[in-house]
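User: I want to check something. If I give you two sequences, will you return the structure for each one separately, not as a complex?

Assistant: Yes, each is folded on its own. Here is the first sequence with its structure:
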Amino acid sequence: MTLPEVDTRPESTDTTDDDSPKMFHYVRKDKIAESAVMGTHVVALCGEVFPVTKSPKPGSPVCPECKRIFESLPPGGED
């Protein structure tokens, strides 16, 4: 069984008062561009569903549940 590629660039629409996301979520890599262009929703590793609207900057906070799940996945998926 091949596991889907998961982007290490988390995405989210949870925002603070200044419109910056509170935290970012890990999502399937192949769904990010589709969501950004078409407005479709993605499903994060933690189960949260949202459209991709922001890209994280280095040091952005990451959903602890997404991070825990991502770190438990076997390595691979990148060719």
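And separately, the second sequence with its own structure:
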Amino acid sequence: MSNPRPLEEEAYDMSGARVALTLCVTKAREGSEADLVALERMFQQLGFESTIKRDPTAQQFQEELDKFQQAIDARKDFVSCAFVVLMAHGLEGQLEGEDEQMVELENLFEVLNNKNCQALRAKPKVYIVQACRGEQMDPGETVGGGNIEMITKDRPQTIPTYTDALHIYSTVEGYLSYRHDKEGSCFIQTLVDVFTEMKGPILELLSEVTRRMAEAEVVQEGEAKKVNPEVQSTLRKRLYLQ
């Protein structure tokens, strides 16, 4: 049996500009201001140009992302990475705007994909979604003791439309997401702590976020509940923020 080859560690080039857009419904979402403060601290520490828009309607969620994409494509400098933070009430696959109308997450994700945003083609696009994805609650369970650039001269390099994206949800499909009235959400606060305190590839950092959230207990209506994030990745390389 031959020895397995070590994994090639190719990383995204993070030497260019880093941009972030946060769209947050604060209306009837107590504690969201604490999350915004924490995110701004994180983006500042990680060298991002950060923009915050409060209380977008469903239509404005789409419009602000479209404007973000157009601004990125219009830049003359090299953009390394984009973060989009979406915080609102929600259902599976949908977010509720300040006007109580719904916007499809899929439509928001499409704006920055490799087809629609040329400046971010083959660059990491990270979406952080702090929203409910259903009505279920989790009481918890008891536990007992290759290189794509290698191409021939006459063939243009191609990549799939949906690579280089990372979707980080505050909870798993079908479940509620929790937020403290004053301290903010367990998810955003934990994510900011890990991203600012620790170094390593982003997927390893997200494993630490999941571990910390799995150990924490959220008290809802007097009862302890469990919640954990869900990560969906099509990243092709390692992504380092520090």
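Because they were folded independently, the notes below concern the second chain alone. The chain has a mean pLDDT of 92. Residues 19 and 49 are 5 Å apart (CA to CA).
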